[in-house]
Amino acid sequence: MLRYRLMITALAICLSACGGDAAPGAPSGTSPAGGQPQPSKKAENPVAAAKRLRPADPQLAQTYQRTCYNCHATGAVNAPLTGNAEAWAPRLEKGMSTLLKSTTDGFRGMPPKGLCFDCSEAEFRELILFMTNQTGQPDSNNDSQD
Ligand code: HEC
């Protein structure tokens, strides 16, 4: 009988000591590689935007392209870009008559008459209105027609 008990004891010890073959549940870290596209939609290049704009009037568009465009649509000489509200905001605060005077007399990097020597004051006014986006460019216009 003693042997029997010893066997039981031995068995019991073995079961607890060496029989612990419980699988160490290894949770494999499966992280979903969800590549979400960043909503970093870049705004249009301001120069590209300026280059697209033309006065509605074909005659004025031609004058503009021949003169103002070369600086105000290229950004090459740090001229305020056509249609760029941010660039023009501080200048608009001076008022139209000051801007007209800057145009005819020249202003720092801006050459007298914007190199349009045959332009009338009325044309300068139109060109300034156009470049400062005061003439209603189609982009922000709510032109719903019934
Ligand atoms: C040779 C390049 C050049 C041409 C051509 C040019 N501009 Fe400019 N213009 C400039 C620059 C540079 C400035 C910014 C001057 C500064 O503030 O330093 C400027 C500024 C101006 C301003 C703002 C002046 C102010 O008081 O802040 C007006 C208005 C303007 N231009 C109108 C025109 C018009 C209209 C034409 C076309 C008839 C024209 N420009 C052609 C270079 C040019």
From TrEMBL:
SUPFAM superfamilies tied to this protein: Cytochrome c
InterPro entries in the record: Cyt_c-like_dom, Cyt_c-like_dom_sf, Cyt_CIE
Organism in which the protein naturally occurs: Biformimicrobium ophioploci
Low complexity: bias regions: 25-40
Protein name: Cytochrome c domain-containing protein
Signal peptide (UniProt feature, chain positions): 1-22
Keyword tags: Electron transport, Heme, Iron, Metal-binding, Signal, Transport
Superkingdom field: Bacteria
Residue ranges annotated for the Cytochrome c domain, each copy included: 59-131
Region (Disordered) residue spans: 25-56
Pfam families in UniProt: Cytochrome_CBB3
Keyword Iron-sulfur set for record: no
